[in-house]
Each structure stands twice: as C-alpha cells, then as structure tokens.
Amino acid sequence: MVIDALIAVAALLALAPAGIILASSPVGRPTVYGASLALSLALIVAGAVSLFGHHDSTTTLPLGLPWLGAHFRIDALSAFFLIVVNVGAAAASLFAFGYGKHEEFPGRVLPFYPAYLAGMNLVLLSADAFSFLVSWEFMSLSSWALVIAHHHLRENMRAGYVYLLMASFGTLSLLFAFGLLAGASGDYAFDTMRATPPSAELAALVLILALVGAGSKAGLVPLHAWLPLAHPAAPSQVSALMSGVMTKVAVYGFIRIVFDLAGPPAWWWSMPVLFVGAVTAVMGVLYALMQRDLKRVLAYSTIENIGIVFVALGLALAFKANAMNFAAALAMTAALLHVLNHSLFKNLLFCGAGAVLAATGERDMEKLGGLIHRMPRTAFVFLVGCAAVSALPPLNGFVSEWLVFQAILLSPQLASWGLKLMIPAAGALLALSAALAGACFVRVYGIAFLGRPRSNAARDAHESERVSVVAMGLLAAACLVLGILPGFAIDALAPVTYLVAGGRMPVQTAVEWLSTVPIAESRSSYNGMLVFVFIAASGMIAAFVIHRLASDKIRRGAIWDCGFPDASTVTQYSDDSFAQPIRRIFGTVVFRAREIGEMPTPSSTAPARFTAIVRDPIWDTLYAPLTEFVAFTAEKLNVLQFLTIRRYLSLVFAALVLLLLVLASWP
Amino acid sequence: MALIHDLLFQGGQMLLVLLLAPLLTGFVRKVKARLLRRRGPPLLQPFRDLARLLRKDAVLAENASWLFRVVPYLMFAATWVAASLVPTFRSGLLFSWTADLIALIALLGSARFFLALAGMDVGTGFGGIGASREMMIASLAEPAMMMIVFAIALIAGSTQLSTMAAFMNSPEVGLRVSLGLALLALIIVAVAENARIPVDNPATHLELTMVHEAMVLEYSGRHLALIELATFLKLLLYMSLIACLFAPWGIGAATADPAEIAIGVASYVAKLVAGSFLLAVFETAIAKMRVFRVPQFLGAALMLALLATLLRFVSRSF
Amino acid sequence: MHGLTFDIAHMLAGSLVLVSFLELYQDRLMALINIYAVHAVVLTLSVAWQALIQDAPHLYITALIALSFKAIVIPVALRRIIVKLGIHREIDNVVGVGLAMLAGIGLVALSMVVMLRVTAEADPLAREDLAFALSVVLLGLLMMVTRRNAVSQVIGFMSLENGLVLAATGAKGMPLVVEISVAFSVLIAFIVIGIFLFRIRERFDTVDIQALDRFRGERR
Predict the structure, then answer these.
(1) Where are the domains of chain C?
(2) SS3 state of residue A613
(3) Looking at CA atoms only, how far is residue C186 from chain B in angstroms?
(4) Tens of pLDDT, residues A329-355
(5) What range defines the domain where residue B120 resides?
(6) How far apart are CA C38 and CA C61, in angstroms?
(7) B258 touching A, CB under 8 A?
(8) pLDDT (tens digit, 9 = 90+) per residue, C11-49?
(9) What's the pTM value of the predicted model, to 2 decimals?
(10) Which residue of A has its CA nearest to C117?
(11) Could you count the other beta carbons within 10 Å of the beta carbon of residue B12?
(12) Whole-angstrom distance, CA of residue A296 vs CA of residue A366
C-alpha cells in the first residue's frame, strides 16, 4: 500500500513542472486540478485500505542520507490522516476546477499546488525524522509560494514573511525534538525511536519542543500570529487546504511525537497541553469576533477548533498517564473525530468565502449583504457550514464536542490535584468558546449573506460555477452524514486509538438504532439520525397541519421596522455593531478594547464618527518586543559590515588565536 | 406490546407539553396581573391568540428569503422535540436515549441560532439589535448551563435525563452543596434563556428594551404563531427541567402503574403551578436590568456553576 | 456522623461561602449590609446545627451572640452610620465584578486544595468544614482588598471573622471564653473604626481611601 501511495505522491510532484508548462494554456487548470483530484482519490483509497484492512506497510527508498535511506510507512494513524488530508485536497481541487477561472496569475498557483499536496502527503508517510523534516519544510515552502502568489498586494508579502519566519522557527523546534529522541546514537528511524524511549527529563523537553514546533504550525496561541495573515492571503482553495488540512498535519506531527515516539507520558504532561488548548480555543474565537475580513474570521475560527482538538489531546494524555485506557481512547476519538469534522466544514467555509470573493471581489463583510438572494446555492451550503462549525445538532461539529464533554465527565477519577482544578476550568472555557463560536457565525452569515446589500458589488453578485457548488455541496453532505451516523467513523478510528491510546471505544455499529454510546447506554447516548428525523418530521407535520387547517397564504409588503423603514442600507446592523456587546464584555479585558464616539456640535454639518480600537495583547507583549530586540541586535551588529581592513585582519587573527588556545587546553 | 405502551406514553407526553405550554404562560400572565391589582387576560387567552394568528395571512417583507419562512417551523420542531424528551410525569421515556441533556441544550441553541439569523434576514436595525443581544446573552448562558449539566451529571453519574431523574428521586442523592449552587445557577439561566425580567421584558413595546421580541418583529400570521408556541414550550421545558432535576418527587418510574401515573401527572401540574406562581412573583418584585448588567448577572451564574463543578471534582461528598 | 446531619452541616457551610460570593457581587452599600446580615444569620444556623450534632450547649450561646450582635446590632448600626455619612447610594469597586468573582473561585479552589491535603487524616466533616471556613476567610480578605470604601472594608473584615468562627466551631470544642473575647474585640474594633470614620468624614468630606492617600501627600 505504501508503494502505491508513494507512486501517487511522485505523480503529484511530477505535476508541478507540468503546471509550469501548462500554466498559460486553457487546458492547464483542468489538467492540474483534475489530476490532483484523481491522485487525492487514489491516496484516499490507499489510506482506507490500510485503515479498514488493519494492514501496515513499510518501505525504504535509497533517497536522502546515504547511511539512513528514506523510510516510509502507513500505519493506522497515518492512514487516518491520509484520508483526512486527501478528502480535503480532493474537495479543494474540485472546487478549484471552477474557481480557478478567476485566478489572475495561474502561473504562480498551478505549479505549487500539486507540490503542496505532495509535501503534505509525504509528511504523513514518513517513518524517519529526516524525511519527515524535509517533507515538512517542503510543505512550508510550497505553501509560502502560494501565500505570496498575489505579490502585488503589500500585505501578502508581509504575510509571507511572517509565515516563513514562524515556519522556520517551528521546524527548528521539531529538529531539536527529533534530535533528542534520536539520542546519541543518531538513528533517526521512527522504529528505533519507538524502541528506545528517552529518559523522563528528555521526554519532558521533547513534549515542550513538539508542542512549540507542531503547535506553531497548527496555530496554538501564542504562536498563531502567522495564521490569520497567511491563510487569507493565499488563493481560496489554498486557504481551504492550509486551514482545513495543513493544521491537521501539524496535529499528526504532535500525536506522532508525543503519543507514539516519546514513550509513556508522565502525570503532568497533560497540563501544558490542556492549558494551551483551552486558552487557544477562547482567544481564537474572541479574535474572530473582532474581524471584518471574512477569511480572517475563518482563520481565527481554525485556531479555536485546533484549541478544542488540543484540549481533547490533553485529556487523552492525562488518561493515558493514569493508565485509564478506555477514557484515553474516548478522548483520543473525540480529538480525531474533531480533526475530521473540522477539515470538512472549514474546507466548506473557505470555499464559500472564495466563491463570495470571486462573485463580489470583496472580503470585507462591511461591503456584503443580501447574498442569499444573489447566490442561493452557495448561501445554502455556507449555512450548513456555519451550523456545523457552531456545533449544532444534528451536524458533525456537535458529535465531536459532545464526545469531548463526555471525556471531561470521566476525569474526576484522575488523581492529580492540578488536573482536578484545571479540567473543570478547561471545560468551562470550552463551553464558552462553543457559545461564542455560535455568535461569531450568526454574525458572519447574518452580515454577509442576509440583510440588504451594502455595496454595489454585493448587489451585482452572481452565483458560483456549478462545479464549485457541487464540491461545496459534497462537503456539506459529508457534514450531515457524519453528524447523523458518526458510529462508522468512530469504529473506523478504533485501530488508531489502539495504537496511540491503548484502548478503544465500544463498537458503535452494534448499538441499537445506531446510537452513539461512548461509555454505557444508561450513562449517555446520542442518536443523531433520530434527532434529525424527529425534527424534520415535526417540522413537516406542523407545516402540513397548519397549511391544511389554518392558512397558507403569503402577502409581500414593505419592511415593517416598526413603521420607520429606512431605504438606506447603512442603517442595518453592521459587523462592528453586531460584535459590540461581546466586545464590550470580553474585549475590554482581553483586547483593551475602547470605543470612541465623536458627536458633532449642534450646528455643524460634520458627520459623527465612531471608532473602536482593539489591540492584540499577544502581539504587543510577545512579538513586538521580540522583533524590536532582534532589530536592535541587528543594528548593533551591523557595525561589522563597515570595518577597515586592519580590523578585519585582527578579527581573523583573534579567531585563530582562540582556536589554538582551545586546542592547547583540550584535556 | 411494551413498545406500543411506551410509544403511547411518549406520544402522550408530546401532546401534553404542547397543550400545557400556552396554559402555563396564560397562568403566569394572570398571576402577574393579579399581583398588580388588575384582572388580567383570561387563562385561555394564549390559545385564542395562537388560533387568531394561525388564521391570518403571513405578511413578509419584500426581501425576506426562504430562510425567513423556514425558521419558524425549524424552531418549533427543535423546541418541541427537546420538550418531549424531558421527563414530566414518568421517567424512562421511549426516546430519552436519543438525546441527553447536553444534546437538549444544543438543540435549544440551534433554535436560537436560526432565530437570530431570521432576525438578521430582513436587514433592519431592530432585527440586528435583537440578534446581537440574544447572542451575547447566549454566549454566557450556554456555558453556565453546560457547567450546571456537568455538576449534576457528576453527582448523578449520567447525562441521560431519565437516569438523572431516577437518581434524584432515590434516597442516595442527599443534600449536596453543589446541587444548591447548581439550582441557583439554573434558575438564573432559565430566567435569561426565557427572556424574562430581569433580563428581558416579554411584554415590552419599546424596541430598545427588546431582545427576543426584536428578533421576531417582522414576523406575522402563522409564522409568528409558531414562534410564540415555541417560546411557550421553552418556558415549559425549563420549568419541567428544574422540576425533574431538583423536585423529582412524584415522577413515576419507568414501570409505573396507572395510579402512579395519575400521581405523576398531578404532581407535575402542581409543580408547574408553583413554579409559575414563583416566576410571576419574582418578575413583579424586581426591575429589569439594563443590558450591560446582564453579563454580570449571567457571569455570576457561570461562576456558581463552575464552583459547583469544581467542588464535585475536588471531593465526592461536596 | 453520616447521612442527613452531615449533609445539612455541609449545606450550611456551603451557603456561607455562597453568601460571601453574593457580598462580592454586590456593589451598593445598603444591599451589602443586608447581605452581611444574611451572612450572620447563616452563621448562626450553622453554629446552632453544630451545637445540636456535637451535643455542645455552649455553642448555642455562640449562636446567640452571632445572631444578636452580628445579624441585628451591627447591621442596624452600620445602616445608621452610612445614612448619616450620606454614602448609602454609592457604588464602589476597584476591579470589575467578573474579575472579582473569578478571583473568588480561584481562592476557593486554593483553599480546597490546601485544606484537603493538609488535613488528610482528620474527620471528613471537619476537613470539609475547615476548607469552607478558609474559603470564607479568603473571600473576606478579597473583599477588603478590592473595595475603595471604608465601610465595605469593615464588612469584609466582619465576614472574615465569621469564617474564623465557622472554623472554630467545626473543629470541635471552641471554649466559650475564646468566643466571647473574639466577639468583644471585634466589637471594640468596630466602635473605634466607627468613631474614626466620623472623624475622617469631618476633616476630609469623604471616606474614600484613595482620596485620603492624596491628602497624605505621599503619592506624588
């Protein structure tokens, strides 16, 4: 199986130069995206065969370092992530079939797109540290090229710069982590690392390095600063991939290092993970509520969902350290299911945002509105995406959050006091972030799609291409199916949880009526299908009875608005005003949000102005001082560029004398 | 045979909640009026209002979308399904395993999500104000509710409502501090979620004081009737929830005989009467808070519920 | 002792913590004094219950002292003072209500952890009562720290003392002498504070502590 996967990846790599050649021809776009679609489907099949067939396969290729070779392997964990990544890739490629028409510089996007897909898949297939890190860097570089594809916009160049810096920083952390795992023997193969777990102190260091390295790619606070800059800057199908899929590759990296390679976890390991995850979830959604740019909101929402995944992973670590394998399996299933669910609905939302951008040319929600009338099909699937991300039953977002809550309810059995205090707090923060996510997406959908159009661009929008709508529709259908019948996905995850958590959840497909029973039926159960059926049935019965027995007439009239209708579309709620109550409650503390209203004096004709100032606390406390420090040091060191020849010679002389001294005093 | 029996009871519960909901609101309004020395509307007035609204034409704004027309049915369906799953006179409902308490809250949350979207649909300032304030209240009330569920679930050992009701009715439960805290928090959350004074005034005609009413300002006819019925059902749901969790005496067991069922129904009605009386007194006794004091009020509920959960985590006897 | 007696004692101690939280939430002085009266009443009930289950009649006297002094005399006196000072409508808070309550929860968690670990071998009822008592003490201190107005600081101090009484009764066997001396010292302190409040008000027209700092001339 792994050979087949590698062949598919090689084909993707071969597409890249083909993309360069075919970029300007009209057949370029369908070829590249079509071939990517086909190859992603092939990779899904490879992953599925491996996962459902419970069948691991390994191979070693004579590439890379001569004494190491390149090891590749598909086991249950990589098989699951292969499926997740390639489902996202397939959907994005199908979407780009139609959307790519709007691309102004296809030559900057088409070559790097298949390379990006190849890089991500290679990371999942790698079974030694060298090929892992090389693929990781390759993935970062190809996505960087895609981020700066529209280089004429200055903000995109800045986004690319920050992205490259953070990506290099993350790779450095991972390099150290793998170095520590490999130990003095320097054998980088994962199998050797698994067989020789490091000592407790080194393992702790590995945890922190993995959290920093993988976390910065996944978007954990405070290493998230690049994500809301880079994700919106890239073309929409690439944003969908970066948010929906690349962050999952980072989660895979974390799980691989911490749950598989670093040996048995200590009792305190879950605490930093839980803390970072909970803070990320709340901060992510609070940031999202302050944004005007549609894609930025979605990028910050990704940060929130990654926080949820890491909270579940922290719980799994805590249970694993306490040898509660069953509960660890539950928490791990929740985390992995949320990974799958999020990649589906985030893909859908970004594709929808891309469709809106293509139709109106605007990302600023302040200029949108009324799109439900102009783009009805896109609006419908986007609504499904918004409902899914707000964790509403019977869609899929709810199932994974429900499982996380069930895992939290099992945690009073943990012995550590720190965990006993931290877990209820993390649960409260998680519930808070779920509620705020609902508010955020009511805002997004309400301002962008509902109401009246706020600009001519929104007034003249047109529906997206049929292929793009089909791609989004497939994703929406997947969200519904996973929400109604999550049992199949949970059972498919059993081999993965066996591998990393040492246990599995009860067999879901054996439960009556296909309910989801995480622990025992008397304790808790949820049946998405029946809930869906009940709601649909009650709604339809009500509609039928009322239309028959009462009235079914409709009259159209002007907007009521309490008798004061205003034709100007500016008087409806804007994105700023919708978020104002929440900004006032949470923002004054977290973002030092201030509102300044300037009213004109009675006889002046100047307009009134309202300014809301929001400061990013993490940028102010972490990044700004750091960049200032680096700039300061660089300034001081710049002197070295302008020395006289005599001074340079003395530097060389001093270095030589120092080396001789070291040699002399070496024992 | 047992399946038919259980199906009949589940169906009976669904009809019971549907019939009792407008009566409950009528009773609350009557008591409030009497406390203010007015005669008040007749008890059956909400039924008459619903019947009147159902017969009228629905007038829609010119730019109202399909979402606007679908939301009343969706909201009614979600609230009705949720209300049917709360044990009222008998625990062990046939479909209680389809949705536990967390799913119930999420169902109410989705009803609210769609109602807020409907408020934004026509594009007026009032719809926006209602939707924005409703989501602000929800952003604090939902986490508080979730922590209340945690606290009670940690005591009862389950999130399934039938199991919880049966546990609360058994002698094992004892008088727990976290239960007291959870009860207080649940009352605060129930007041907020049902748009009652002090959070929102259900009888106001001033748009700037509205939260729930502002979202449904553009609705008329049968759509408005469905939304009103859903609101009545939500009040009934919260009262039944408080009754089933904190005053479960009289709820028949899953295998109850007709005498116990009769006692169950009678005690349920008695609890509803007591609850609505207390609600009416509470609403008459205090004034509505200004909007930005509501977060403090709900924040207190969140803190109480968090404290209750924390205490349960710390020791099993709290 | 298990079962209902345990639970009721627990419930009363927990209610004391709850009323302390209500004090933190309240920012109007008149209502604060009323809540303090409720605090004292709950303390009375708790001490009386302890007297019942420990079979210790002298605790009834403690309960009576709590009821008469702390629930009746002191609140009435405070009410008169603040009406005379004219500050009965003021609102005072240094940090927002949300932050204060969050800090309160943190303190309760802290006292739970500390008490339950330190007293691992003691009787379960006493341990948990002590944990609650420490929470009340810490919450009283929090009130003193987060309030500007001298009267609210006095109330914080009084609720702190209530917490100490709860601890003492829970620990089984607080001799009456200790209770009487503590109560009298609090009373004296209270009288002194009251006198000083009037003097301060006469000189500076305010009892806002920060304003007094300005007059002291040390904050330049």
Answers:
(1) 4-213
(2) strand
(3) 30
(4) 999 999 999 999 999 999 999 999 999
(5) 2-315
(6) 19
(7) no
(8) 898 899 999 999 988 878 888 999 999 999 999 999 898
(9) 0.91
(10) A417
(11) 15
(12) 14
